[in-house]
Amino acid sequence: MADDLCFFIKDMLIIRPSVKNSMVLRITLLAFVMVCGVFMCSIGLKQISTFTKAGFIDIKVVEQPCEVPNVEKWERPYVHLPKPTTFNRAECACNPVRYFVISSTQRSGSGWFETLLNSHMNVSSNGEIFSVKPRRTNMSTIVDTLDKIYNLDWLTSASKNECTAAVGLKWMLNQGLMQNHEAIVEYFKAKGVSMIFLFRRNLLRRRISILANAYDQSAKPLNGKHKSHVHSHDEAKILASYKPSINTTLLIPELKQADDMVKQALEFFNSTRHIILYYEDIIKNHTVLDDVQRFLRIPQMELKSRQVKIHKGPLHEQVENWEDIQKVLNGTPYESFLNEDYRVS
């Protein structure tokens, strides 16, 4: 009887679940784990999103300021780090830029000189910007134009863009420079602009060149085209074949007027940082160009131009009434202009 009771109790305590119930349990547990996982992931993503909005979206990238170039104290006003609006200076953003202007008179070699400067890989001289009258209407238009040029936003064929080390323009004395000299001097001082004066010593040669250029403008012997500057020796010979006749009655007043304008310009802009060059000196001694590069604080390079000089022969061969000119200039302050001052092969 006791044995039967014992077996009965064992049968009551030992419960063996069926295979079907076991599978259902496993599936339920797996589903529960998956739901929990999805829930936890969604909570985590929400937290990351909230953190991003709070911590990253409002963060602004601050550009590292450029280090001030190691220059002498007097030079600091002439060192600039422009930030153009038309392009990004990229890796050259911290490369310093010098501002300059070439001031000259017509037919003094300024076009040739500017091509020499622009042959430097880090120099951008943008030509006679103020030959266009609306740009020199008043100081407001002048300043707007200069600001664009010196901020590297004036794009021309001369622009070196990112790695420009010196930027400027060619500004003739009769293109608003003299009329607005006081305000322009103040602008140059405030902006740290250096001036390169380029003149001709022999004003008689300049006068002959002006007359020859005027003839070319009207006659256009080069296939109906006017060319102030040429790149071919054949074209230069054609233009040099014209020999103007100078009005000797007006010659001395014209020479004096040109001389006075140069003297006045140097007086007006004497307080600016400047260098004075003469066309004849550059022709005779190209080391003058090294002085210019030192003045602009740019790397020394050999400067070249494709322009060909038009009038290369002796002065008496370039004018029709040479004997009359000699009579008028002999015994005057301009007598030295009759002498040969340089020779070009």
How would you describe this structure to a colleague?
α9 (248-268) crosses α12. It contains 12 helices and 5 strands. The protein has helices at residues 2-13, 19-55, 110-118, 139-150, 173-177, 181-191, 203-219, 233-240, 248-268, 279-284, 288-296, 322-329; strands at residues 98-104, 123-125, 166-172, 193-199, 274-278. The protein has a 5-stranded parallel beta sheet, sandwiched between helices. β2, α4 (139-150) and β3 form a beta-alpha-beta unit. The chain has one domain: Rossmann fold (3-Layer(aba) Sandwich). Helix content is 45%, strand content 8%. With 345 residues, it is of the alpha/beta class.
How many angstroms separate the termini?
Answer: 144 Å
CATH class: Alpha Beta
Strand composition percent:
5-15%
Classify the fold: give the CATH topology: Rossmann fold
Mean pLDDT: 87
Query: What is the H/E string?
Result: HHEHEHEHHEHHHEHHH
- Sheet having the most strands: 5 strands, parallel
Feature tags:
alpha/beta; Rossmann fold; 12 helices; 5 strands
Quick take:
The protein has helices at residues 2-13, 19-55, 110-118, 139-150, 173-177, 181-191, 203-219, 233-240, 248-268, 279-284, 288-296, 322-329; strands at 98-104, 123-125, 166-172, 193-199, 274-278.
Strands, helices and their partners?
Blueprint: H1 2-13, H2 19-55, E1 98-104, H3 110-118, E2 123-125, H4 139-150, E3 166-172, H5 173-177, H6 181-191, E4 193-199, H7 203-219, H8 233-240, H9 248-268, E5 274-278, H10 279-284, H11 288-296, H12 322-329
Parallel strand pairs: 1-3, 1-4, 2-3, 4-5
